[in-house]
Design a protein that fits this description.
By secondary structure, this protein is α/β, with parallel strands linked by helices. 31% of the residues lie in helices and 21% in strands. The site of adenosine-5'-diphosphate has 14 residues, from helix 6.
Amino acid sequence: MPDTPASTCRIGVVVEAPQHSGLWGALDYLSAQPLVPGTLVRVPLGRRVVTGVVWSGTGFDEQAPAVEEASLKAVLEVLDGLPPLPDAWRQLVKFAAGYYQRSLGEMALMVLPPELRQLDALQWGRRLKRLNKAVAEPSVPDPSALPELTPQQEAALAQLAEPGDKPFLLWGSTGSGKTEVYLRQAQRALDEGKQVLMMVPEINLTPQLEARVAERFAGRRIVSLHSALTPAQRLRNWLMAHYGHADLILGTRLSVFTPLPRLGLIVVDEEHDPSYKQQDGARYSARDLAVYRARLEKVPVILGSATPSLESWFNALPESEGGTGRYVRLAMPARVGDGDMPRVRILDLSRAPKQLRGQEPPPVAQELLDAIAQRVEQGEQSLVLLNRRGYAPVLHCSDCGWKSGCPHCSAWRVFHKVDRTLRCHHCGFTERVPRACPDCGNTDIHPVGRGTERLEEQLAEALPQARLGRIDADVTKHKGALEERLANVHAGEVDVLVGTQMVAKGHDFRRITLVAAVNPDSALFASDFRAAERQFALLLQAAGRAGRDADVAGHSEMWVQTWHPMHALYQALRRYDYADFAAQQLKEREMAGLPPYASLAMLRAEGKTQQAAQDFLHAAVEAVQHLAEEIGGITLYPPVPTPVQRVANVERAQLMIESPMRPALQRFLGQCQHVWLELAKQNRRSGLIRWAVDVDPLSI
Ligand code: ADP
Ligand code: ZN
Ligand code: ZN
């Protein structure tokens, strides 16, 4: 690098710097030649050499004091041959950093493939050569016959043919043919020579979509982007997208940041799914960023769901119905082939025969058991849903009252019978089950409650003629295990499938004619205001697993075992009336001043003690109270411990910040960051470990 001052220019580069470093924007470096914004470079940072993104001609961080040119360091290398990241990419990253209150560098580098951040120019050059060799010509398309569209699909596609600048909400029952609509609209974009970004919540749970996309677009280059890829695959696929080689990108939330030079359509399938929100670090919502990106790049975006998030639903409600009218709603209420949704049967547990004292209730009421037995006899499959894995959520000593608590968390350790362990689902702490009560030596310690492992065991006992199967996170840890178990179900080797919410999503089970939720009540009284919304979506989605084949749809059933049969949630479910359910929920949210009628942010703190965490939050409130008053319309709630307050010996607390006006909340948070950063530095000595702002938090 020649260091003749006459030929050097000053260049702003963003590098990955942790939040607490206070480096908010770009840093200035010197370069012998001008560099286009979006170029990737290697620069010295402290004692390390790191990858950075050229952001602008000069650094633009107004907060940082101007640095003397003489003390600036030089750009060391340029990753040649990589086209600069497009302006739209930088704008998206900048917006995301600002909106979610993270530093620009963290956001920009976080969304690049991890391997790209580690290569130096030499390694990069070699990689590039290999990649260029690997780009094969796509295979010849197979002109397989397309299904004839249903009238509702026709109508939706007609509206999609004339996109304005509004996002679309495709609200279609499970099995209404939403995917077909995505594929047709994707075809249009591909025909115009555009790229398509298709997002799914969890790629591991949707192998069927991958297969369908691959089959439909056999002649196109399709790449996937998700965290289960090896770093090399991920880099390769990302580059394919960035170079414009890939036509269709199928990805999870991280794919929303993929640079796409020919972007023509974004699809967000199951848009209500919480997986679209990142839960640590930069807590962004890929769904919301997809909407932002579509507007930025002037391309249509389709959000699809049978049970939209209330936020999206509210935006798709016309103003005359109390919504915002910002989205266009496309409704497809009918299932393809007019297969009915299963009949919902609400089973009132209070009317089931009483248990004797001390006797545990049966896993499912007799009536439901009989119904399952009957399906088994007919050679049909049943799906029994229980959203709790393990054998039992807690072990208990009836002599002294000991319970299997976790020594590191404020939570019980779950009993897993398969390997006779007590496992904490929060911190992972695992021990062998003690032979006797650790407190009093009593050998009669017993499980309380029931998880999927126990449910499977009990159903196997109660239905000796049935072949049981189970799908949950415990039995699908190993690569390929989920696929194997799903294949067993599809092959008809399982009569009764026990599973967590994992099986409720997306899978196309042809022979399931009975779905039962055995313990759905917990969500009715949860402290999280979104619990009901989530439960409704889960139950409706689970119901959608039944009767996918028209010839069995006629007698399919969805059973709900409950102590609260008259609850509005179940009553709406019974009629498959999402619109009614949404209306009830919106009314409650409006009265309570909750989203979508208000915007929320959560300031979270972790400390060595609960006191330390809360002290920081109290100080944080005090330090910005005047800002809140200046801006107006900002409510700061008192700090409270989080629902599970201690995890792995770290105490956690949070405070909610609420405003009916999103821009006001944004302005407020923007002004708070520097104040809180300073404050956090001071509080570190008194036991504060970490803090973060979560904008639009999904769980509270
Ligand atoms: P969704 O995504 O709304 O749950 P899918 O797109 O998966 O629905 O469609 C459900 C089933 O119906 C799939 O097996 C699909 O192949 C089939 N299908 C979709 N559209 C049509 C159509 N127009 N004609 C016949 N079958 C269709
Ligand atoms: Zn005991
Ligand atoms: Zn624990």
